[in-house]
Write a structure and sequence with these properties.
This protein has about 250 residues and is α/β, with parallel strands linked by helices. The radius of gyration is 17 Å and the shape is globular.
Length: about 250
Protein backbone atom coordinates (compact mmCIF):
# COMPACT_ATOMS: atom_id res chain seq x y z
CA UNK A 1 0.00 0.00 0.00
CA UNK A 2 1.49 3.31 -1.11
CA UNK A 3 0.98 6.68 0.45
CA UNK A 4 -1.22 9.17 -1.38
CA UNK A 5 -4.62 8.73 -2.93
CA UNK A 6 -5.42 5.04 -3.58
CA UNK A 7 -7.01 3.76 -6.80
CA UNK A 8 -8.76 0.69 -5.37
CA UNK A 9 -10.57 0.16 -2.08
CA UNK A 10 -10.41 -3.43 -0.79
CA UNK A 11 -13.32 -4.35 1.48
CA UNK A 12 -13.17 -7.44 3.71
CA UNK A 13 -16.10 -8.18 6.06
CA UNK A 14 -14.93 -10.08 9.14
CA UNK A 15 -16.48 -11.68 12.20
CA UNK A 16 -14.15 -13.51 14.63
CA UNK A 17 -11.58 -14.18 11.94
CA UNK A 18 -8.36 -14.12 13.98
CA UNK A 19 -7.50 -17.63 12.74
CA UNK A 20 -7.88 -16.93 9.00
CA UNK A 21 -7.33 -13.19 8.62
CA UNK A 22 -3.51 -13.20 8.76
CA UNK A 23 -3.22 -15.39 5.64
CA UNK A 24 -5.81 -13.29 3.85
CA UNK A 25 -4.09 -9.99 4.64
CA UNK A 26 -0.61 -11.37 3.95
CA UNK A 27 -1.64 -11.81 0.32
CA UNK A 28 -2.12 -8.05 0.03
CA UNK A 29 1.48 -7.40 1.00
CA UNK A 30 2.47 -9.40 -2.10
CA UNK A 31 0.27 -7.53 -4.59
CA UNK A 32 1.88 -6.31 -7.82
CA UNK A 33 -0.52 -3.35 -7.67
CA UNK A 34 0.30 -1.09 -4.73
CA UNK A 35 -2.11 1.88 -4.89
CA UNK A 36 -4.92 0.60 -2.73
CA UNK A 37 -6.53 1.03 0.66
CA UNK A 38 -7.43 -1.95 2.83
CA UNK A 39 -10.68 -1.83 4.81
CA UNK A 40 -11.63 -4.57 7.26
CA UNK A 41 -15.19 -4.34 8.54
CA UNK A 42 -15.33 -5.70 12.08
CA UNK A 43 -18.82 -7.15 12.45
CA UNK A 44 -18.87 -7.23 16.29
CA UNK A 45 -15.94 -9.62 16.70
CA UNK A 46 -15.06 -10.79 20.20
CA UNK A 47 -11.56 -12.01 19.29
CA UNK A 48 -8.45 -10.24 17.95
CA UNK A 49 -9.82 -9.61 14.44
CA UNK A 50 -9.54 -5.81 14.67
CA UNK A 51 -6.10 -5.92 16.29
CA UNK A 52 -4.76 -8.23 13.60
CA UNK A 53 -6.24 -6.11 10.82
CA UNK A 54 -4.57 -2.96 12.16
CA UNK A 55 -1.23 -4.77 12.45
CA UNK A 56 -1.38 -5.29 8.68
CA UNK A 57 -2.07 -1.61 8.06
CA UNK A 58 -5.78 -2.01 7.38
CA UNK A 59 -8.36 0.59 8.26
CA UNK A 60 -10.82 -1.03 10.66
CA UNK A 61 -14.44 0.10 10.74
CA UNK A 62 -17.09 -1.41 12.98
CA UNK A 63 -20.56 -2.48 11.91
CA UNK A 64 -22.85 -3.30 14.83
CA UNK A 65 -25.64 -4.89 12.80
CA UNK A 66 -24.77 -8.58 12.39
CA UNK A 67 -24.63 -10.00 8.88
CA UNK A 68 -22.57 -10.02 5.72
CA UNK A 69 -24.79 -7.47 3.96
CA UNK A 70 -24.64 -4.78 6.68
CA UNK A 71 -20.88 -5.36 6.97
CA UNK A 72 -20.37 -5.20 3.21
CA UNK A 73 -22.45 -2.04 2.88
CA UNK A 74 -20.52 -0.37 5.69
CA UNK A 75 -17.27 -1.11 3.89
CA UNK A 76 -18.58 0.23 0.60
CA UNK A 77 -19.68 3.45 2.26
CA UNK A 78 -16.23 3.89 3.79
CA UNK A 79 -14.41 3.21 0.50
CA UNK A 80 -12.59 6.22 -0.96
CA UNK A 81 -12.19 4.83 -4.46
CA UNK A 82 -14.41 4.34 -7.49
CA UNK A 83 -13.20 0.75 -7.80
CA UNK A 84 -14.12 -1.46 -4.84
CA UNK A 85 -12.61 -4.95 -4.65
CA UNK A 86 -14.31 -7.41 -2.33
CA UNK A 87 -13.10 -10.68 -0.85
CA UNK A 88 -13.65 -12.75 2.31
CA UNK A 89 -11.49 -12.95 5.42
CA UNK A 90 -10.74 -16.64 4.84
CA UNK A 91 -9.82 -16.24 1.17
CA UNK A 92 -6.33 -15.91 -0.33
CA UNK A 93 -6.14 -13.70 -3.43
CA UNK A 94 -3.52 -14.14 -6.16
CA UNK A 95 -0.56 -11.73 -6.28
CA UNK A 96 -1.89 -10.00 -9.43
CA UNK A 97 -5.48 -9.81 -8.15
CA UNK A 98 -5.68 -6.03 -7.81
CA UNK A 99 -3.66 -5.44 -10.97
CA UNK A 100 -6.08 -7.61 -12.96
CA UNK A 101 -9.09 -5.78 -11.50
CA UNK A 102 -7.66 -2.37 -12.32
CA UNK A 103 -6.64 -3.35 -15.85
CA UNK A 104 -10.03 -4.89 -16.59
CA UNK A 105 -11.96 -1.80 -15.54
CA UNK A 106 -9.53 0.38 -17.49
CA UNK A 107 -10.00 -1.69 -20.64
CA UNK A 108 -13.78 -1.94 -20.19
CA UNK A 109 -14.89 1.41 -18.71
CA UNK A 110 -18.59 0.66 -19.20
CA UNK A 111 -18.48 -2.37 -16.93
CA UNK A 112 -20.09 -1.91 -13.51
CA UNK A 113 -18.76 -5.07 -11.89
CA UNK A 114 -16.64 -8.15 -12.48
CA UNK A 115 -16.02 -11.54 -10.96
CA UNK A 116 -13.33 -14.17 -11.19
CA UNK A 117 -12.89 -17.84 -10.44
CA UNK A 118 -11.75 -20.14 -7.66
CA UNK A 119 -8.57 -22.14 -7.21
CA UNK A 120 -8.60 -25.44 -5.36
CA UNK A 121 -7.18 -25.53 -1.82
CA UNK A 122 -6.37 -29.23 -2.25
CA UNK A 123 -3.39 -30.75 -4.05
CA UNK A 124 -5.41 -33.77 -5.14
CA UNK A 125 -8.21 -31.71 -6.69
CA UNK A 126 -7.23 -29.77 -9.84
CA UNK A 127 -8.00 -26.07 -10.12
CA UNK A 128 -10.10 -26.82 -13.21
CA UNK A 129 -12.69 -28.58 -11.02
CA UNK A 130 -13.33 -25.40 -9.03
CA UNK A 131 -13.15 -23.26 -12.17
CA UNK A 132 -15.74 -25.48 -13.80
CA UNK A 133 -18.14 -25.24 -10.87
CA UNK A 134 -17.69 -21.47 -10.71
CA UNK A 135 -18.25 -21.03 -14.44
CA UNK A 136 -21.36 -23.22 -14.48
CA UNK A 137 -23.06 -21.64 -11.44
CA UNK A 138 -22.15 -17.99 -11.94
CA UNK A 139 -21.57 -17.55 -15.67
CA UNK A 140 -23.33 -20.21 -17.76
CA UNK A 141 -26.37 -20.73 -15.52
CA UNK A 142 -26.40 -17.04 -14.64
CA UNK A 143 -26.76 -16.04 -18.28
CA UNK A 144 -29.52 -18.60 -18.80
CA UNK A 145 -31.72 -17.77 -15.80
CA UNK A 146 -30.73 -14.16 -15.11
CA UNK A 147 -29.51 -12.92 -18.48
CA UNK A 148 -26.13 -11.84 -17.09
CA UNK A 149 -23.07 -12.99 -15.17
CA UNK A 150 -23.61 -13.34 -11.40
CA UNK A 151 -21.17 -12.18 -8.73
CA UNK A 152 -19.04 -14.33 -6.45
CA UNK A 153 -18.49 -12.74 -3.02
CA UNK A 154 -14.91 -13.89 -2.35
CA UNK A 155 -13.72 -12.76 -5.80
CA UNK A 156 -15.44 -9.69 -7.19
CA UNK A 157 -15.16 -5.95 -7.74
CA UNK A 158 -17.61 -3.17 -8.55
CA UNK A 159 -17.81 0.54 -9.18
CA UNK A 160 -18.90 2.64 -6.24
CA UNK A 161 -20.85 5.03 -8.45
CA UNK A 162 -23.02 2.12 -9.63
CA UNK A 163 -23.48 0.72 -6.11
CA UNK A 164 -24.63 4.15 -4.91
CA UNK A 165 -27.58 4.00 -7.33
CA UNK A 166 -29.04 0.67 -6.22
CA UNK A 167 -31.04 -0.64 -3.27
CA UNK A 168 -30.16 -4.31 -2.75
CA UNK A 169 -31.97 -6.62 -0.36
CA UNK A 170 -30.75 -6.35 3.22
CA UNK A 171 -31.58 -9.82 4.59
CA UNK A 172 -28.72 -12.23 3.94
CA UNK A 173 -30.81 -15.13 5.23
CA UNK A 174 -33.23 -14.51 2.39
CA UNK A 175 -30.81 -14.02 -0.50
CA UNK A 176 -27.27 -14.77 -1.56
CA UNK A 177 -25.95 -11.25 -1.11
CA UNK A 178 -23.50 -11.37 -4.01
CA UNK A 179 -26.04 -12.78 -6.46
CA UNK A 180 -28.67 -10.28 -5.35
CA UNK A 181 -26.13 -7.49 -5.84
CA UNK A 182 -25.49 -8.72 -9.38
CA UNK A 183 -29.16 -8.47 -10.30
CA UNK A 184 -29.27 -4.85 -9.19
CA UNK A 185 -25.98 -3.83 -10.81
CA UNK A 186 -26.82 -5.54 -14.09
CA UNK A 187 -29.60 -3.01 -14.59
CA UNK A 188 -26.93 -0.31 -14.85
CA UNK A 189 -24.28 -1.96 -17.01
CA UNK A 190 -22.27 -5.06 -17.83
CA UNK A 191 -20.91 -7.58 -15.35
CA UNK A 192 -17.75 -9.23 -16.69
CA UNK A 193 -16.33 -12.68 -16.02
CA UNK A 194 -12.53 -12.61 -15.81
CA UNK A 195 -11.26 -16.23 -15.79
CA UNK A 196 -7.67 -15.30 -14.91
CA UNK A 197 -8.80 -13.36 -11.81
CA UNK A 198 -8.22 -16.02 -9.16
CA UNK A 199 -8.51 -16.61 -5.43
CA UNK A 200 -8.01 -19.77 -3.40
CA UNK A 201 -11.25 -21.20 -2.07
CA UNK A 202 -11.59 -21.71 1.69
CA UNK A 203 -12.78 -25.19 2.77
CA UNK A 204 -13.18 -24.04 6.38
CA UNK A 205 -16.86 -24.95 6.67
CA UNK A 206 -16.13 -28.56 5.75
CA UNK A 207 -13.08 -28.75 8.01
CA UNK A 208 -14.71 -27.13 11.03
CA UNK A 209 -17.93 -29.17 10.91
CA UNK A 210 -18.19 -31.69 8.10
CA UNK A 211 -21.91 -32.44 8.32
CA UNK A 212 -22.94 -28.80 8.71
CA UNK A 213 -20.58 -27.75 5.93
CA UNK A 214 -21.94 -30.44 3.65
CA UNK A 215 -25.49 -29.33 4.40
CA UNK A 216 -24.62 -25.72 3.59
CA UNK A 217 -22.90 -26.46 0.28
CA UNK A 218 -25.30 -29.17 -0.88
CA UNK A 219 -28.58 -27.92 0.59
CA UNK A 220 -28.82 -24.44 2.07
CA UNK A 221 -26.70 -22.57 -0.50
CA UNK A 222 -28.31 -24.06 -3.64
CA UNK A 223 -31.78 -23.33 -2.28
CA UNK A 224 -30.88 -19.74 -1.43
CA UNK A 225 -29.30 -19.44 -4.89
CA UNK A 226 -32.59 -20.46 -6.49
CA UNK A 227 -34.63 -18.30 -4.13
CA UNK A 228 -32.52 -15.24 -4.98
CA UNK A 229 -33.12 -15.83 -8.67
CA UNK A 230 -36.85 -16.36 -8.07
CA UNK A 231 -37.10 -13.04 -6.21
CA UNK A 232 -35.75 -11.21 -9.25
CA UNK A 233 -37.35 -13.49 -11.84
CA UNK A 234 -40.87 -14.22 -10.52
CA UNK A 235 -41.68 -16.41 -13.51
CA UNK A 236 -39.10 -18.90 -12.19
CA UNK A 237 -40.64 -19.25 -8.72
CA UNK A 238 -41.61 -22.82 -9.49
CA UNK A 239 -37.89 -23.68 -9.24
CA UNK A 240 -37.95 -23.40 -5.46
CA UNK A 241 -41.54 -24.21 -4.56
CA UNK A 242 -43.97 -22.49 -2.21
CA UNK A 243 -42.02 -23.30 0.95
CA UNK A 244 -38.96 -21.30 -0.10
CA UNK A 245 -40.86 -18.38 -1.64
CA UNK A 246 -42.35 -17.32 1.65
Amino acid sequence: MKNGKPLISVVIPAYNEEKHLPLCLSAFKKQTFKNFELIVVDNNSTDKTAEIARSFGAKVVREKTKGIIPAREKGYREAQCEIIARTDADTIVSSNWLETIYETFTEKPRAVALMGTLHSPYRLIPHKVFRGITFFCFVALGKIVAGHVLLLGPNMALKKSAWAKIKPHYDDKLVHEDIDLAFHLAQLGEIIYVPHLTVTFSPRRIHENFLRGLYQYAGEYPLRYLRTIAIHKPKLKHLVGKKFNQ
